[in-house]
Design goal:
13 strands, TIM Barrel, 2 domains, alpha/beta, 52% helix, 14% strand, eight-stranded parallel barrel, 394 residues
Length: 394
């Protein structure tokens, strides 16, 4: 079922343990995006968070501006801008500026905001966040199109608001909405003809919701006379791969349990149903994560295809389970072995080798005949020269 155009990328929250130097951690995130650009990854999505200590990028736009200057071709997305936290005019202008600064390499990911602690600090009730996201998204898309907006809500006021710089990308950069379990992302994608970022695609609840949310998007798109494009559907899941499962498991001991503890602290319900035992082993066995080989990564993506059908990109959830060298090696192994599998990049190479093998005896015989003919030709030429020398001497 795989699509040869399947794109590869990361979703960088990021996750950094609280004992690490935060400055060096952010610098390493920039190095990671550079590394992915060299390996041929197509996309990197950068998160926005303001509390809880682990996910320390508060402005994906600032990070993208720096990453764009270090890279050549990888596209860079906000993953996501938490729209209820921002005046929609300000959010629109920042994305348009990035669109020009990157000359079309920016993508706009939008969502309601994930951490309740972020919303609390801003005095926003979590129950308001999804409605506010939809309000802001509607305004931002109108501003992207060059419209003038006068609108008053209970959390922003716009008077003859209009961007003074239209997007570099026509009509505007690609827009995606976050989708986890609730139908809010699918509703927005279907209504406004947007892409979807399924940020918990391999987690039990998110995996179960994949088909439901995509159908929601399709149904609402049909009501507006459109069809959803699976190329704009992105599925996110955590992976760490090595040359053997044993090596991957050893690598993950570096940071997996810190990552798991973070989620236990901010959202205990996420893994509340796990049976007793080592959470790494349990999550591997249940398919929520991959910690193994490139073959295990391929099986996970095949599992997503079987559940979802076609989709445009698989994004690895960046997590720092392993040390820096092993982390880079994991992304390299994915690029070397997983990407070409789904793109069928080696199909003709394999066919060529198989054809050559099947005709081996015939081809060897022909090569031997050619060699013998060359020896004979050389011998004949030398003999003729010797004869010519003899005639000349007479």
């Amino acid at each position: 079922m795989s699509d040869p155009t399947l794109r590869s990328g990361i979703f960088l929250a990021p996750f950094h343990p609280t004992e690490e130097d935060p400055t060096l951690a952010i610098r390493r995130d920039l190095e990671l995006v550079e590394w992915l650009d060299r390996l041929g990854y197509e996309e990197a999505w950068i998160g926005e968070h303001h509390s809880a200590g682990f996910e320390i990028i508060s402005s994906p736009e600032v990070f993208i501006a720096a990453a764009a200057e270090r890279t050549k071709r990888i596209k860079l997305g906000t993953g996501v801008v938490s729209l209820p936290y921002h005046n929609p005019l300000m959010a629109a202008n920042r994305i348009i500026q990035l669109d020009h600064m990157t000359m079309g390499r920016v993508m706009f990911g939008a969502g309601p905001g994930l951490l309740a602690s972020d919303a609390m600090m801003l005095g926003i009730e979590p129950i308001q966040q999804r409605d506010r996201m939809m309000e802001a998204l509607d305004v931002i898309l109108r501003l992207f199109r060059g419209e003038s907006v006068t609108e008053t809500s209970d959390w922003y006021t716009l008077k003859d608001a209009k961007v003074h710089l239209l997007p570099f990308t026509k009509p505007y950069p690609e827009v995606c909405v976050a989708s986890t379990v609730t139908p809010s992302g699918g509703r927005a994608a279907g209504k406004y003809d947007l892409g979807m970022l399924c940020v918990a695609a391999t987690q039990p609840d998110g995996f179960d919701a994949l088909g439901v949310n995509w159908r929601t998007a399709q149904e609402i798109a049909a009501e507006h006379g459109r069809k959803m494009d699976p190329a704009r559907l992105r599925l996110v899941g955590p992976m760490h791969i090595a040359e053997t499962r044993e090596e991957a498991r050893r690598n993950a001991n570096f940071g997996f349990y810190k990552w798991f503890d973070y989620f236990q602290r901010i959202n205990p319900a996420r893994f509340a149903s796990l049976p007793k035992g080592d959470p790494l082993d349990i999550l591997i066995a249940g398919g929520a994560i991959v910690c193994g080989t490139p073959e295990d990564a391929i099986k996970q993506i095949d599992r997503l295809y079987a559940k979802q059908g076609q989709f445009g990109a698989f994004l690895q959830l960046a997590h720092n389970w392993a040390n820096w060298d092993a982390t880079k090696k994991s992304y390299e192994l994915y690029a070397r072995y997983v990407v070409p599998h789904f793109r069928k990049a080696n199909l003709h190479r394999v066919q060529s080798l198989e054809w050559t093998t099947a005709h081996n005896q015939e081809l060897v015989a022909m090569a031997q005949q050619a060699q013998q003919a060359m020896f004979a030709k050389h011998k004949a030429e030398r003999e003729e020269k010797e004869k010519a020398k003899g005639r000349a001497a007479e």
